[in-house]
Amino acid sequence: MLRYTVHVRGEWLAVPCPHGTNTIGWLGKEAVRRYMKNKPDNGGFTSVEEVKFFVRRCKGLGLLDLDDTVEDALEDNEFVEVVIEGDIMSPDFIPSQPEGVHYISLDGNSLTTQDLVNLGKGLYKIKLTPEAEAKVKQSREVIERIVKEQTVVYGITTGFGKFARTVIPNSKLMELQMNLVRSHSAGVGKPLTPERSRMLLALRINVLAKGYSGISLETLQQVIEAFNASCLPYIPEKGTVGASGDLAPLSHLALGLTGEGKMWSPKSGWADAKYVLEAHGLKPIILKPKEGLALINGTQMITSLGCEAVERASAIARQADIVAALTLEVLKGTTKAFDTDIHAVRPHRGQAEVAFRFRSLLDSDHHPSEIAESHRFCDRVQDAYTMRCCPQVHGVVNDTIAFVKDIMTTEINSATDNPMVFAERAETISGGNFHGEYPAKALDYLAIGVHELAAISERRIERLCNPSLSELPAFLVTEGGLNSGFMIAHCTAAALVSENKALCHPSSVDSLSTSAATEDHVSMGGWSARKALRVIEHVEQVLAIELLAACQGIEFLRPLRTTTPLEKVYDLVRSVVRCGK
């Protein structure tokens, strides 16, 4: 089966094509159909048949004849765009590419997790600070002296891993580095998305900018030029054991920069790396002694994905408080459990912050809730744990995220090469900064912590759907039986929570000896990072289900209104999802 990635109105859609004899017109219609399916209002269309469009390649922007077959006109896995008649053709194929040019100056010491995510989104281009340039030059001078004096130093004039005692003659030092990159480009699996490839590339640049890697300023500037042109190598997501660094994915990154393998850019789509570089006026990097090792030795795959995970976790943790507060209103809960004195005597920072958010959202004195007033004098004494204990459960999630973010911030501004080049001492020192145990353990902890937001949310969804607990119609639908309401939406939430329980098993508790027992303890941090992102995605989906259910529940309490902030949340949801009583 053939597969194509199709761009429709700012969204990328994966479209399988069962037969090569299907036409380009069929591919366009199928992409539009999938686009409409993902939109609450069908994208403004009533049927696929009424949509008029044309199709063009992303690579070269050439228009395609709708009557041609896909096997004649396209290569498998090619990127194409469907342009709806009347729309403006997209000038660029990274969805969030900015119109203006904004730069962020990297020095290897001050990058934040949010900065890195923004670099992944294409919001900034990169330049080095003058101080970073000076440090890179000084570091390179040490390497040039080692080569000139033919000193035996690991990775510069010797082989790697088990071959560390094999001395390489000066005439083959450049070949050594290229062979290293080629042999280590052994990853498998789907390629990283453009956004994640940009994050990985940006983070490696930041580490090299510290001046402890021995890369030349000329080569580093070439790497920066590739980033700024959005020339992104093909980087499979699997293959790293997290020590010695993320060798396989970083080798694929380096391979593309040398003009070998595949590369993607907004204007070219996927093509041979040398042609993509050439199309942007760039030359392939020619690796000098130590530069291959400088490009591939470090924890940047784990850490770049970890930065995305921690930023998404921060966002969903804040949203979880809002969603839970809305559910509490629908279930006619009390705000007494959020009293300041309760949390002052157990002063965990996250717990206090969550309680404050709940008070801000539910405080009837500042923005009265008619729903709260309707049951003020009821005989209920206290709520179920899933509502009453939100500050304690959500709170530790917030503290976990803060802990992990601190580790990630340190890691993205750390030198993780081996050997390290210390210009002030005019020497290189072998160590173990490439070991990914820090980010691996932190991301396993993040997955365990953030999962609890989904676990408690799923129980609140149950309370919303169960008429014996909610005093609302079963599954939040008026004509039960004829309509099933949120019955299966709750099942989906339960399935995601169950899947998360398996994903939360820490991958960093495992280690397998590699490289003929030279690298005899590894972190398995690549899987820690990837599964943390999967856990967070599931948490986002479960909380989205709860949000929809809570908004549905409010419909049965009308004309009563909740607090002003929560009414704003309700209005936002209803702007994209209509009421379905």
UniProtKB/TrEMBL annotation:
Gene Ontology biological process terms from the UniProt entry: L-histidine catabolic process to glutamate and formamide; L-histidine catabolic process to glutamate and formate
Catalytic activity: L-histidine = trans-urocanate + NH4(+)
Molecular-function annotations in GO: histidine ammonia-lyase activity
A Pfam family reported for this protein in Swiss-Prot or TrEMBL: Par3_HAL_N_term
Signal peptide coordinates: none
Name recorded for this polypeptide: Histidine ammonia-lyase
Phosphoprotein as UniProt keyword: yes
Gene3D superfamilies given in the database record: Fumarase/aspartase (Central domain) (1.20.200.10), Fumarase/aspartase (N-terminal domain) (1.10.275.10), Phosphatidylinositol 3-kinase Catalytic Subunit, Chain A, domain 1 (3.10.20.90)
Keyword terms: Histidine metabolism, Lyase, Phosphoprotein
Source taxon at top rank: Eukaryota
Enzyme Commission (EC) number: 4.3.1.3
GO cellular component: cytoplasm
Protein family: Belongs to the PAL/histidase family.
InterPro entries in alphabetical order: Aromatic_Lyase, Fumarase/histidase_N, HutH, L-Aspartase-like, Par3/HAL_N, Phe/His_NH3-lyase_AS
NCBIfam families reported for this sequence: hutH, PRK09367.1
